[in-house]
Amino acid sequence: MNEKLLQPRRRSMRLKEFNYVTSGAYFVTILTRGRSCLFGKIIDDQMQLNSAGKVITRWWLELARKFTTVETDEFVVMPNHGHGIIVLADSIVGADLRVGPPDSRTGAHAGAPLPTVMQQWFKTMTTNEYIRGVKRLGWPPFQGQLWQRNYFEHVIRDDESLTRIREHIIDNPARWAFDHENPAMIADKRDPAY
Fold first, then answer.
1. Alpha helices for the chain (secondary structure H)
2. Tens digit of pLDDT for each residue in 151-182?
């Protein structure tokens, strides 16, 4: 029997009716595979990035340069995940939605929908650089993949929501002890005394 048929199907986290090519703002969260804390530590409610965490930040900032229809907003790297706001500019509507070769003058890709930006570019670039860091700089290795297969996104529908999400991102390091992505928090929930 085909092994692929025996594997459990993953439920899509995407809104069925929503077109993720639509211009607008999106709150995205990406998480390391197995919630491995690879990007630094929280000390005194502040995120202290290690070299790998700085690399993740650098590639986030590169998004707007690489994709002419993408703008980035607030972003934070946590020990095992990242939260950020991506804005797909109006010029994407009606554009060729396949990521074509880069513009020879700027090196930028145009017309990329959110899944392409996150899955095919950001995760690929950060994974490749992390692998180089493991080989050349002794960063902690990861098992299988650096990132979980999927990512979480939330469509930001109004200014009030945008303000609330920006605050969530900025305040995230101070709430690490209670963060549901914190492996210590998950371990506490498994404790029968919890």
1. 3-6, 51-66, 114-115, 123-137, 159-171, 183-190
2. 999 999 999 999 999 999 999 999 999 998 99
Predicted model pTM = 0.77
Contact 64, 58 (CB under 8 A): no
Please state, in angstroms and rounded to a whole number, the distance separating the CA atoms of residues 35 and 142: 10
- Contact between 12 and 153 under an 8 Å Cβ cutoff? The reply is no
Q: Is 70 helix (H, G, I), strand (E, B) or coil?
A: strand
* Residues ≥6 apart with Cβ < 8 Å to 168: 83
69-102 pLDDT, tens digit per residue, is: 999 999 999 999 999 999 998 643 333 333 334 4
Distance CA 117, CA 121 (A): 5
